[in-house]
Amino acid sequence: MIRVAGLRKTYGGFPAVVGSDFEVSEGEIFGVVGPNGAGKTTTLKTLAGLIEPTEGTVEIGAYDAGDAEMRRHLGFLPEESPLYEDMTARSYLRFFADLYDVPREEATRRTEDTLDRLELEHRDRRLGDMSKGMKRKVAIARSLVNDPDLLIYDEPASGLDPLTTNYVLEFTRELAERGKTVVFSAHNLYHVESVCDRVVIMNRGEIVARGTVPEIREEHGETTYRVFATVPVEGSEATDDGRYLRTVGDMAAVEAVRVEAEFAGGGVADIRTDEPSLEDVFLDIAGRPPAAREDGRGRADSAAAARADGGREGERTDSGDDRGTW
Ligand SMILES: Nc1ncnc2c1ncn2[C@@H]1O[C@H](COP(=O)(O)OP(=O)(O)OP(=O)(O)O)[C@@H](O)[C@H]1O
């Protein structure tokens, strides 16, 4: 579906993406992960044809990215989605459906279905009066008005509460089940793990790890999850806000906590990726010089060097610019 070869993008000589190669198959959910400034948005915008590569090729099916015909098969959700504040959700979506020449009845059915699924209420409310989560849902519905084969979502759950985030992530999975290819970027490894088939981790414009999330974790370190249950579960500690915290090391254990909590008449209120673990994975990968990465050397050294440098364990200490900060 997508073939990226030797992709390089510079802004006035500044290398935002430096030689990316990856492929995404049809129906796959593909995550682009990395710290602020890693080059995720640049990569996604290049796939969407909104940015021209400085070097390299980006092919989407039979088209080059940027080909006008390709756009008809694409749904792009930018990180910040400015909406026309005076329009209602319905009129806004109808406006975009008209731009894509979608017949009225078909457009209404499609957008109402999407908004039902995302549980968006008040569809005739002004967009300017909607909450951030509601606006994000409208933006997601907009990305689907043309029934695209490929969806490119930049931080789809950015700034959303846990419940809305879950809707959005579950919905992303549903889209792939309906045969759509989804490429999305995120900071949160838990979000990525819950929906992505494969992932690339970027840092300073470079892909520094790739594979399924379990493959990456196995190779580069362990992530832990803090699961907040509404009832006591085995090994949990009560938190100040009346929840019960259990820290576990993998998704099977997260699922076991959820089942235990539900069996006890409660549920899971929130799940958080343990940040130091995430940073350990990142430091393990990104702290090594590129040459050492090639042959697997330098892994323990780089984390140790970061700590010896005076930083907290897992904290980056070398952010001389805006690149490479989680
Ligand atoms: N139009 C631009 N002009 C100059 N530099 C840019 C431009 N767009 C991005 N950059 C720089 O390129 C680098 C990569 O930016 P990009 O937005 O792709 O990163 P990102 O991984 O999406 O970051 P974030 O997580 O903060 O959104 C950053 O250092 C950024 O400052």
From TrEMBL:
SMART domains in alphabetical order: AAA
Stored Gene3D superfamilies: P-loop containing nucleotide triphosphate hydrolases
One Gene Ontology MF term: ATP binding
Keywords: ATP-binding, Nucleotide-binding, Transport
Keyword RNA-binding included in the entry's annotation: no
Pfam families (alphabetical): ABC_tran
Keyword Transport among record annotations: yes
Positions of region (Disordered): 286-326
Start-end of Basic and acidic residues biased regions: 291-300, 309-326
Stored InterPro entries: AAA+_ATPase (IPR003593), ABC_transporter-like_ATP-bd (IPR003439), ABC_transporter-like_CS (IPR017871), ABC_transporter_ATP-binding (IPR050763), P-loop_NTPase (IPR027417)
Annotated family: Belongs to the ABC transporter superfamily.
PANTHER family: ABC TRANSPORTER ATP-BINDING PROTEIN, ABC TRANSPORTER ATP-BINDING PROTEIN NATA
Protein name, entry field: ABC transporter ATP-binding protein
Organism: Halogeometricum luteum
